[in-house]
Structure formats: structure tokens, C-alpha cells
Amino acid sequence: GKTADGPVEVSTRKVDLDRTVKVQFIANMNSDAPWKFKPDVFEMEVHPGQLNETVFYARNLADKNKVAQAIPSVAPGQAALYFHKTECFCFNEQEFKPNEAKDMPLRFMVDPELPEKIKTLTLSYTFYELNKVAGN
Least crowded by CB within 10 Å, which of 43, 63, 80, 133? Predict the structure, then answer.
């Protein structure tokens, strides 16, 4: 499922300390892409309603400036409505100098209204090189 296109305001929701949900992180890109792209952690146990933070690492392996954009999706698809990002590197194009590496933050919350039957969410990013030159 497609996640929201921009930051979501997280209201003062009650954190459900009696429940945990597993959130898995996946990083994808074309096999011939000049990047290294991976999550800092591959999964987290989170409480619905709690604000969480993690990082994705990206490095431009080319010897010239590059611009990329990460496109997110959530599985199972119906869970996308309950996955809220408050800060995400996917909201903006990312510019990289030659061989530059970045730790890119992700702040999110799993909505306490997530149906009880969903125990695991998978957040997948596909990192695409944009056809533009960084700095222009």
C-alpha cells in the first residue's frame, strides 16, 4: 500500500503499551544503480501510538553528483492507512556529491487503530536515481 505523500501530524494519541507490532524495513534499487542503500536496522518492535525513529544509509558510489528519490510502500496494503511518517527522507529529493554518504532519518508511528490481526508491517523503499544533476 502507498503511504501518505507528506508529513503527518501525530496528535496526542494514547500509546498502547499492552501491544507490540513488528515493523520490518527493506531497501530496494536497480541492480546497476550507482548507490549503496540500506536500513540501519531491519526490524523493530513498536508500541502503537508511540513515536519511533530509525535511519536509512545511502551512498553515491559514482564519481559525479547524483539526485535520488525514495518511494515508500507498506505491506500488507491495508496497513498503509495506519503507518504515519512525521519525518522522512522520502519527502524530498536527495542530492549527493561524488562518493558522499548520508544517514537519512525516518520518524514514524503505527496508529493504535491498526487492526489487531495485523502483527507485522513491512516498510519498503525503492531508491530511484532522478535524471537531473545535483546542484542545478
Answer: 63
